[in-house]
Amino acid sequence: LGAARCGEPGAVAAVERALGRDAEAVRNSAAGALRFLPEEDALRLAQVAMSDRSGIVRFGGARGLGVVRPDRASPLARAALFDDDPAVRLTAAGVLLAAGDVRGLRALVVEIESTSPERRAVAIAIAGECGHPALVGAVRRLVRDRDERVRNAALEALARWRHGEGLLEALEGATDEATLLAAAGAILDAVVAPAALERAIEALENRANRRPWDARIRLQSARIWSKLGRPGEALRAAQAGLLAEPWDDAAWEVAEAAQRGG
User: Fold this and answer.
1) pLDDT by residue for the chain (262 residues), tens digit each?
2) How many CB atoms lie within 10 A of CB 51?
C-alpha cells in the first residue's frame, strides 16, 4: 500500500503478487492500494480482487474502480450488483451512478429501503456523494428514521447537497433532542440562505423556551446567529446557555467567540 501510494517502481507487480497471497489481510491491503495505481492496472487488478473469496477484498476491488473512467468500470460494477456482500453492491452502485447508469440508482434505492440500519446508513452516505436528484425524496424521508445513525447520515447528505428546505423540515419536525441538534448542526455545515437560518433559529428558540435548562439548544442557536453575522443575538443566546450550564466549556467558547464578534 505504501509503495503504491508513493508511486514507487514495482508497485503494480507488488500489488498483483499480494492479491494472490493466502492471508486475507495482505489481499485486503493490496485491494486498498488499487486506487493509487494507473488506470489500466487498477482496472485489471480490480477484476482480480472482485473475484476474491473474501467480501472485504471484493469491496476493496470495487473501490479501486473509482480511478477508472466510468465507461470502462461499468461492466465490472454491473456484475458486482449481484455480489453477496452489501458493501460491494453499494460501492458498485456508486460507480454506476457516476457513469449515469440507471441500474446504479435502482440498486441504491433498494439498499436505502433495506431493513438493516447499517445498510441504510451506508447507502445514504453513497447517495450523498452522488447527489442524484432522484434520491432526494428517499433521503428526506429517512431524517425521521428510527435509527440515529440513519437519521444522521440523511442529515449529512442533505447538508452536502445544501438542501435547506429538507434540513429545515427535519429541524422543525424533530421529535427528539438528538435529531434537533443534529439537524441544526447540519444547517450550520451547509451553505443555506439567511431566511433558512432565521427559520432554524426560530425552531430552536421555540424548543429552548420549553426546555430552559438545556444549554445545547441555545448554543446551537448562538452559532447560527454568529453565522448570520448577528453577534449581539449570538451573545444573548450563548449567555442563556451559560446560565443553564455554567460549567460547560463549549458554552464559554461560544460566548467568548460571540463577544469577540461584537
Assistant:
1) 666 565 666 888 888 999 999 999 999 999 988 888 889 999 999 999 999 999 999 999 998 888 888 889 999 999 999 999 988 998 898 888 878 888 888 888 888 888 899 889 988 888 887 777 788 888 888 888 888 889 888 888 888 877 878 888 888 888 777 888 888 888 887 767 888 888 888 888 888 777 776 778 888 888 888 888 888 888 888 888 777 777 667 767 777 777 776 5
2) 12
**Residue 77's closest CA among 59, 96, 49?**
96
Cell of 67: 480511478
Neighbours of 62 (CB within 10 A): 29
Residue 122 CB: number of other CB atoms within 10 A? 21
